[in-house]
Amino acid sequence: MSKNKNIPEETVHQTTAVVLEHGFTNPGVEPHEPERMTNKDAKAAKRAERQVTAWFLLSIVFTIAAIVAYIALPIRDNDMSSVHPNNLFLGLAVGFAFLSIGIGAVHYAKQLMPSHEMQEPRHEVRSSDEVREEAAEILHTANEESGIGRRTVLRRSLIGAAVVAPLPGVVMLRDLAPVSQGLVNPAEKLRHTIWGDKASLRLVQDPDGRPIKASDVQLGSAFHIIPENLNDIENHSQKIIEKAKAAVLLVRLPEDEIVSGAEDGYHGILAYSKICTHVGCPVALVEQHTHHLLCPCHQSTFDIADSAKVVFGPASRPLPQLPITVDSEGYLVSKGDFKAPVGPSFWEIEK
């Protein structure tokens, strides 16, 4: 059933004036669509309600299936074949869980929500008390017409689906600090890297592992660096974790242009963590003229010539510097671990 709101006479006169001035006619409200069966037949409305409820309940089932898939199909160390089924079934279950909520919401809107066309004039941004009272009345009417207040099963199934849907994310995030490891503070695991495991570790290129001499690093060049002891780690998963923490960007600047940080470098050669201190993205875009280092994720910008201090963007602290020197053969080596914790600042938070 179509229902138009009465238009004030003043608005009608204004509209007529605009029509006369510009020479076009007011098209008015489009013809109302044929009345829905759910408006005419109580049984059809009840059937639609059951269908919507079924979609919401199905979402809960898929959410539980996602949690089961995550636990039943774990990603095993040194077994890349276990990654595919884990990602496949987890992704499908989470996707169908949200899809079911979406389908149920659309079906609810199309079959059970009011379908009135309304036409009303613009009003000032700040409404009067009378208009606010009218808005409250409209909300009350909408609640009555939509039936969300009286359709108890449908409402509870929607709330249940919305509450349960985030659980797979909670389970996966919780698994970042597994009980089997005694709930060790994650910050402690990320505070130190394998650069600090041995003295005078050679800087080698990623991925070929070739050591670098100071003479190899020319002005304007940049190298992606890993520690030479990385290949000593046999466990593949652990090796990936340690590489992510120890990754370094090596650059060379004119010595007279370095403001600070030269004491931990070697003749203008500086080494900084590649892990952005904002949310951990890899930082690797070097602007040679300004000596700026850019994170492509959120545009945090660091000044390499001034201890990699933040000059722009959301990062809150400089990139940690790796102290370096050369050995007796002229190869670049580390003098210890990074001078500050790597990665996002929240890693420094103590319990």
TrEMBL record:
Protein's recorded name: Cytochrome bc1 complex Rieske iron-sulfur subunit
Function: Iron-sulfur subunit of the cytochrome bc1 complex, an essential component of the respiratory electron transport chain required for ATP synthesis. The bc1 complex catalyzes the oxidation of menaquinol and the reduction of cytochrome c in the respiratory chain. The bc1 complex operates through a Q-cycle mechanism that couples electron transfer to generation of the proton gradient that drives ATP synthesis.
Subcellular location(s) of the protein: Cell membrane
Membrane topology field: Multi-pass membrane protein
Gene Ontology CC annotations of this record: plasma membrane
Cofactor list: [2Fe-2S] cluster
Lineage: Bacteria, Bacillati, Actinomycetota, Actinomycetes, Micrococcales
GO MF annotation list: 2 iron, 2 sulfur cluster binding; metal ion binding; monooxygenase activity; oxidoreductase activity, acting on paired donors, with incorporation or reduction of molecular oxygen
UniProt keywords, alphabetically: 2Fe-2S, Cell membrane, Disulfide bond, Electron transport, Iron, Iron-sulfur, Membrane, Metal-binding, Oxidoreductase, Respiratory chain, Transmembrane, Transmembrane helix, Transport
Transmembrane segments: 52-73, 88-109
